[in-house]
Give the backbone structure.
Amino acid sequence: MIRIELQLALNYQIDAQGADFVFNIHAAQTAHQKVSFENLWISQPVESQIHIDAFSGNRYMRLHAQQGELNVTYSATIDLMHHFADPSQIAEVPMHALPQEVMGYIYPSRYCQSDRLLKLASNNFGHLPQGYSRVMAIRDWVQNHVAFTSNSSTSSTSAVDTLIGQVGICRDFAHLMVALCRAVNIPARFTTGTDYGADPVLGPPDFHAYVEVFVGNRWYVFDPSGTAIPMGLIRFGTGRDAADVAFATIFGNVQSHAPVLQATAIVDAALGTLQPQRTQQALSTDGGFAQATS
């Protein structure tokens, strides 16, 4: 088991009109990710509402803030009890057998224009044996064709933009991998967390975007940017692309400051908690689906 202690702080300056926020900063509760403790503090005396998506486990918090400074802090203890699998035994799921809940992740979306990448994906991956290995080939292709470059993209950069520019940050790597998977009919979704294990040379700890791909009737974790240690990734939200799971969506005139994050692994032999490490096994923190019968 992996235990992560998370601390997160957000700071905003709000003008006289006030502003509305939708936050996705609460760690998701899933079959293999449990939040054993959490605490939320909001500096202003405002009410907040939390909505939990029944399928994804995403937790969205809404609030209306008044003029002045708004500080939001969130701390949590998260236990990751990964599902491990042998990659060679993980097959792709035929289209007719995909669960209905997964179908939304096979179509193009705002930042993942898979319909514009059909020929590219077919030429590079259409001939490969189907299964987890084909997803790994897509991940490796993205890593080999895009250079991780800080401040090289904007919130409007799409998968096609990243393909053309060949530079990006974690968000861009994730969008391109998602789009290429969908272009060969493999469901894939955009996932947000923290960049546990990232090289400090890339900057202070930050939010992170990675990918979950539906193969073997389960969502498996992939980090196309290669900057984090997948075993230490905690999930905040999953969606079709970044538009669904921004850590903060803001309506109003607001000055934002850089978020402050810290994710620390608690290693304790008595508790059975381990240090996250890179592994060749397939990893999932999501519950699986029963095998469909035809």
